[in-house]
Amino acid sequence: MHKIDISIGKDLFEENNKIAKRNNEALREKNVFSVDFMGSIGSGKTLIIEKIVEKLIGKKKVGVIVGDVTGDDDYKRVKKYNIPVVNINTGKECHLDAHLIEHALEDIDINNIDILLVENIGNLVCPADFMLGCDRRGVVISVTEGDDMVRKHPLIFQISDFVVINKVDLAEYMDVDIDKIVRDLEVIAPKKVFLTDAKHDKGIDELIDWLIWEKN
Hints:
Layout: H1 2-29, E1 33-39, H2 45-56, E2 62-68, H3 73-79, E3 85-89, H4 98-105, E4 115-122, E5 136-142, H5 149-152, H6 154-158, E6 162-166, H7 171-174, H8 178-188, E7 192-195, H9 204-213
Parallel strand pairs: 1-4, 1-5, 2-3, 2-4, 5-6, 6-7
Helix pairs in contact: 1-4
């Protein structure tokens, strides 16, 4: 029974990776740069995406795919910018996958966007296993989650290209040592790290510069 389960899991991941590669090829063919934002619920993924959209309006054509288990609250927050947005509800699934993105791309005119931002489901475990086909994958964490999340969830940080430590303005009130988080990343998953306070628009320009303007 265990051998069968392993085989099914392997086939699932292999098929997902094939579709992810296809997604990436379709986007690159149209010169669309894509970013997958992963992270737990409440880390600030949506607000960071909003801030990026605000700063890129008039400079780049941006499209967004929003993933949630249910509802369209985050979708509405992004839709107000009058840009192409697709909402994906996964039901019981705790992650987006390449097949869902493939269908979402059918609802976005990729001929008319330069950048695609994807907000994954709020979770520090499941999204790590499912590539979507984006050029870069990042993890957004908040100091309100404590300073041990890297040690507790190493895989998602190891497979990411960058890490955003958000809500740094609250660190002293939460008794969280940001340097400790950074040290854990240096040991467990050395990555490009950004310190942000998205609510007060701090650190977002540096993130955009690295993601968008320096992507090549």
